[in-house]
Amino acid sequence: MVTRGYRTPSMIDRYARPETARIFSDEEKYAIWLEIETLAAEKMAALGQVPESVPKALRTKGRFDAGRIAEIEAEVKHDVIAFLTNLGESLGPEARYVHQGLTSSDILDTTFAVQLTRTADLLSAALDRLLAALADKARAHAETVCMGRSHGVHAEPTTFGVKLAGHHAAFARAKSRLAAAKKEVGTCALSGAVGTYATVDPEVEQYVAGKLGLVPETVSTQVVPRDRHAAFFATLAVIAGSVETLATEIRHLQRTEVREVEEPFTPGQKGSSAMPHKRNPILTENLTGLARIVRAAALPALENIALWHERDISHSSVERTVLPDACIALDFALHRLAGVLENLQVYPDAMKANLNRQGGLHFSQRVMLALTQKGASREEAYRLVQVQAMKVWEDRAGGGTLTLLDALSADPGIMKYLPQGDLVGLFDVGAYTRHCPMIVERALGGA
After folding, report:
1. Which helix (DSSP H) or strand (DSSP E) does residue 404 occupy?
2. Most CB atoms within 10 A, among 153, 232, 284, 343?
C-alpha cells in the first residue's frame, strides 16, 4: 500500500522485521508527528506563547486516525494539514494553538531524523550479532588451513579463520561509520518558513531536540541539508558492499567443485523444483540482491542534495519510497547474514583436499626465494621454478599426478643451488600459517 507518507510496500511486507516495519509505518510516523507538536507546545506554553492547556490537551486528548487522515488528504492534497485537521477533531478549542509558527518541513525533517537514528540503532545491533558470529567462527578456524585465491586461482595457503577475520574487520569499520552516520543525520529543525525563527523561538527547537535525542540543525533554511542524508545512505551502501563481499565468498566456496563451506540447509527444505539433489546457496544469493537495493539508494540520496533556494520537494518522493526500503533491506540482510554464519557448515577435509589438488604449486614462491638466497638471480630463480611449475600445471590439467617437488627434484638447474633436503624442507604449509592466529586475534581486537 502506497500513501503520501512513508510507504508500506512489498519490501516491508517481505523483508521487514517488526522493529523496522514499525519505524516506517504510517502509525509510527503520525505518533512521532504528535510527539513533536506536543513537545513544541510544551515549550511554547513555558514561554507564555500558548495557553498551558494546549500541551495538556495534546497529551490527554490528542488522537489521530490514519484512515481519516487519508480521507482528508485526498481532498486537501497535503499530508501535514490532513494530520492537523484530524488532530483538531479530537482536541477542541486548543487546536488553534497547535503548529504555531511551524512549517511542514519542521515536522517532516525532524521525524525523518528520529526514524533514521532509530534505524541506525537497529542496524548497529544487527552488526553486533554478525560480528559475534564472525568472531566465533574465526577463532574456531584460526588454524584451519585452506587455499587462498587471487583472480579465482590458487595462490598460497591461508586459514579459514583469517578469511573470516578480514570480514570481521570490515564490519567493525562499518559499525564505526554507522555511528558517525547516525550523528550526521541526528539533527532537527523547528525554525519556521525559511529557517529564520521569525515565528518560532529557537528555544522551542532546542527543547524538542533535547527530548528526542537530536541536536538543532546549524542552518536549516526550511529543510535539513540533504548532504547529511546522503552521507548516511552512502554509509549504508558501503555496509551493503561488505555484505555482498562475504555472501559472494560463501557462494563461491559452496560451488560443487570447491565445496569448502555450505550455508545452512534445513530439514524439509527443497533446493530445486526439478532436481531433488540440489542444495543451492539461496540465502547468500538473496543477500547479493538485497545489497543492490541498498546501494541503489545512495545515488538518489546524493542527487537530493541540490534543492532550489531554501527548499523544494524534489527530495520528498525519493525519501518516502527508496530510502525506507534501503534501511529495511539492510537490517534484514545483516540478520540473515548473521544467521548464515551462525549455522555455516565448514568442511576442513575438503579444504585440505583442494589445497593438494595442484601438486604443491603453492610452494613456488618459497622455492624461488630460497634460490635467490643460494646465489641465483631473481630472474633466473623465477624462470627455473616457472618452467617446472608449468609442467605440473599442464600435467594436473590432464589428470596427471606430477608434483612440484618431483618436478623440481629432477631439474639439475634447481639442484645446483638446493640440496634435496633443503628443497623438501621448503614444502612446509606451516610456514604460511604460523602467523594466522595472531592475525585473527588482531582483527578481533585481541593481542
Report:
1. helix 404-409
2. 232
